[in-house]
Amino acid sequence: MKKALSLLIVLVLFAGFTNGQSKITLGVGGTVALPMGTFADASSMGFGGLVRGEMGFGTIVGTASLGYLSFPGKDISEDQGSGVTTTYSTSFSAIPILVGAKYSFAPGFYGSLEAGLNMLSWEAKWETKVGGVVYPAGSGSTTGSETKFGFALGVGYQMSPFDISLKYQNLGTPEGGDALNFIGVNVLYCFGI
Questions:
Q1: Rg (CA), the chain
Q2: CA–CA separation, 109 vs 104, rounded Å?
Q3: In the 8-state DSSP scheme, what is residue 82?
Q4: Residue ranges per domain, the chain?
Q5: I want to staple 167 with a disulfide (CB 3.0 to 4.6 A). Which of 29, 100, 115, 154 is the partner?
């Protein structure tokens, strides 16, 4: 994560040095994410942080962002019959690294499109109970991670120094799983560099 943050800062600074006419800003803030579809069946509301660099060219603004999102798992119980119950829980985290653009269509209002890589990790746990007593052979946990391509499409309002946006974001589709999609609200505090 330190390498990705360093790369983001270097890219934003390099872009500023190569084009003295451009306005560069840095935004730091938080995200609240509401999972959608089958992702919502397994995960609760997510939270995270976001750092975004921007370089303006009139109504179009280039963006590069780095974030961290954590989605706690929901307990899902399954009755196996004969007094046997298995409870599953899967928690997810993601580090999205996205580049894209914002287009201003009215004073303060903009639309955005971003794409990039998402470093995903998860932990799955399961516990089996027989007659209310934990059955160790039927319980356990596993972890995994992978990197997937994803995108984000959003709208926002910028009222200096704050930037508030609503986004539909896709974190990718893990092997053997369903797409990890969510609606996110981002609030950033922006300042010039």
A1: 20
A2: 6
A3: T
A4: 2-7+27-192
A5: 154
